[in-house]
Design goal:
By secondary structure, the protein is mainly beta. It has four domains: 7-174, Immunoglobulin-like (Sandwich), CATH 2.60.40.10; 180-263, Immunoglobulin-like, CATH 2.60.40.10; 267-428, Mitogen Ypm (Jelly Rolls, Sandwich), CATH 2.60.120; 435-550, Jelly Rolls. It is 12% helix and 42% strand. It is built from seven helices and 37 strands. The protein has an eight-stranded antiparallel beta sheet with strand order 27-24-29-22-31-36-33-34. An eight-stranded antiparallel beta sheet has the order 26-25-28-23-30-37-32-35. Strands 2, 4, 6, 8, 9 and 10 form a six-stranded mixed beta sheet that branches. A hairpin with an 8-residue loop joins strand 33 (469-475) and strand 34. Helix 2 packs across helix 3 (39-57). The longest helix is centred in the first third of the chain and has 19 residues, at 39-57.
Length: 550
């Protein structure tokens, strides 16, 4: 390996101090990535550079290094601080002090480039050509840690010609210490008088403050102004505007993006139109649902289905399906069986009813009447205690199936009987999960309380409950987008107040119980999924609930 000809270095050493500083100021922070073949020469080079900087430092030249934190320019390799996770890094530049700067740089094999950073576009060991006097390390670091890399400058492009000796550096990326928002508040349009909730998730936050149009929220109908969830009841024009949340800790604060609240009068406000549970059914699964709502009247047409065979067929191809699900609809307060079905193709008149309802609700169509999927269309009035849809294997077998209820009303107004609650008690095996889906219809956003209980469920005498259930709410189309999540409700006063306002049983009085819940306001038209599992990977019985919040 040859070093760059030192005849060129002599011309660099003869440059005036002002020119040296001008060259240095072209970079955010310049480090000399070169050691000479002779010890004395390296020391001499370093002394010239430090002398040049020192001679003009009093004139403020050092402070003008573009975008840099002022630090001593090193003539030898060393430790570099590459900032903090999630914060754009202003940059670190490397050069070789020769009359002709390198035309290409090599990041040697074995080097580790900090995730999120790059060397003038290079993110892994390799060679990159440059047309400036330096190699720039910049970007936004994503992972804290200590990283080591080795650089070498080349005279010509593509790592050809003469080369400098290698220089090794250690980069330290610090973990973020100020709060970082992983879920931002979402805008909402609701009807006047309806509720609205804004929720955030922020790491490392110890306190929160919600603001409306830049001022702390103080409205009388606001709850949770200093918690991750702001809840507004009976919204009015006084609540309209842009909401932000300030998350703070001992190191500083971070402000969320803004989320606007708007009011819109409509005859078709947001409401639940579909509730579904995908579960591995052993024995039976009971899905409870309640319809009604304040100021409503009349019966509601509902499509109720238990799907197994069609779930295992194309295009779904879901494995280990329940081959023969039966369906029983029960009125809960009287334990009266209202309807049963074991194969949607019988009786013959059921086929046309189910297919018409499939088409009206947008449910995926059942096409083979000989399949052993089960489905019913029922007209049910709102009653105290609601109803249950019980799915079970006809032959006592087990497997995966979807139990679902669809609003099949041909039209909807604010006084129409509607779905207002879904609940399900089921066993989740160790390491397993449960998927609960729902869809909102109408033209405005709707507020929902979503809960999963295990510890509180145990207080009702249910054996084998999950000790630490957690939940994540996502769009069905993209599980990477987290709308809301909770792993331990921690006695959240907003959760308690909202549950009490809709008549939901209270969680255990212990704020350290590991039941979980979220309050969210979400727009219509998007299918949503609630994924439920154990925070520790365990199993057990859980109660999952989705409530409309007026």
């Amino acid at each position: 390996m040859k070093s760059i000809a030192f005849a060129r270095l002599a011309r660099w050493l003869n440059l005036p101090a002002g020119l040296l500083i001008a060259l240095l100021q072209r970079t955010p922070l310049v480090r000399i990535a070169m050691e000479g073949a002779e010890e004395g020469l390296v020391a001499s080079t370093g002394a010239v550079l430090r002398s040049a900087v020192g001679a003009v430092a009093a004139l403020g030249a050092l402070d003008t290094l573009a975008g840099a934190t002022t630090s001593a320019i090193m003539a030898t390799p060393g430790i570099i601080s590459a900032g903090t996770v999630g914060t754009p890094y202003s940059g670190e530049a490397f050069t070789v002090p020769t009359a002709a700067f390198p035309s290409s740089w090599q990041v040697l094999a074995g080097s580790t480039v900090p995730p999120g950073l790059n060397f003038s576009g290079l993110t892994a060991p390799g060679v990159i050509n440059v047309d400036v006097a330096y190699l720039l390390l910049s970007g936004t670091p994503t992972t804290a840690g200590t990283y080591t890399f080795t650089l070498m400058g080349w005279e010509y492009p593509n790592g050809t010609g003469l080369n400098s000796l290698p220089a090794t550096y250690t980069v330290v990326v610090k973990a973020s210490v100020t709060p970082v928002f992983t879920t931002q508040p979402a805008p909402a349009t609701v009807t006047p008088g309806a509720s609205a909730a804004f929720a955030v998730i922020a790491t490392k936050a110890t306190s929160y403050q919600w603001q409306l149009n830049g001022q702390n929220v103080t409205q009388a109908n606001a709850a949770g102004a200093t918690t991750p969830t702001l809840f507004l009841s009976n919204t009015s024009a006084a609540n309209v505007g842009n909401y932000t949340c300030i998350a703070s800790n001992g190191f500083g604060s971070t402000t969320s993006t803004g989320a606007a609240l708007a009011l819109a009068a409509t005859t078709t406000p947001g409401h639940l139109i579909n509730l579904s549970i995908l579960s591995d059914i052993t024995g039976s699964l009971t899905m409870g649902f309640v319809n009604g709502g304040a100021g409503t009247s009349g019966a509601q047409s509902l499509l109720i289905r238990a799907i197994g065979p069609s779930l295992g067929a194309p295009p779904f191809n879901y494995p280990a399906i329940l081959p023969d699900p039966t369906l029983t609809v029960v009125q809960q307060n009287t334990h009266t069986t209202l309807a049963t079905n074991a194969g949607w193709g019988t009786p013959a008149g059921n086929v046309a009813l189910v297919q018409a309802a499939d088409n009206a609700t947008g449910a995926f169509a059942l096409t083979n009447p000989a399949s052993l999927d089960s489905a019913l269309v029922e007209s049910l009035p709102g009653v105290s205690g609601g109803y249950s849809a019980v799915a079970a294997g006809k032959s006592g077998d087990s497997g995966n199936a979807i139990t679902e209820v669809y609003d099949a009303n041909s039209s909807y107004t604010a006084t129409s009987t509607r779905l207002i609650n879904l609940s399900c008690i089921t066993l989740i095996p160790a390491g397993g999960s449960l998927g609960v889906g729902f869809v909102l219809g109408g033209t405005t956003s709707k507020t929902l309380l979503v809960r999963v209980s295990g510890p509180t469920l145990a207080t009702f005498g249910t054996p084998g409950t999950m000790t630490d259930p957690q939940l994540v709410v996502t769009p069905q189309s993209n599980g990477a987008i987290i709308i809301g999540a909770n792993s331990g409700w921690n006695g959240d006063p907003v959760i308690s107040a909202v549950a009490a306002s809709i008549g939901a049983f209270p969680f255990t009085t212990s704020p350290t119980s590991h039941d979980s819940a979220v309050v969210l306001t979400m727009p219509p038209g998007t299918p949503y999924t609630v994924e439920v599992n154990s925070a520790s990977g365990g199993g057990g019985n859980v109660l999952v609930e989705v409530y409309e919040v007026p």
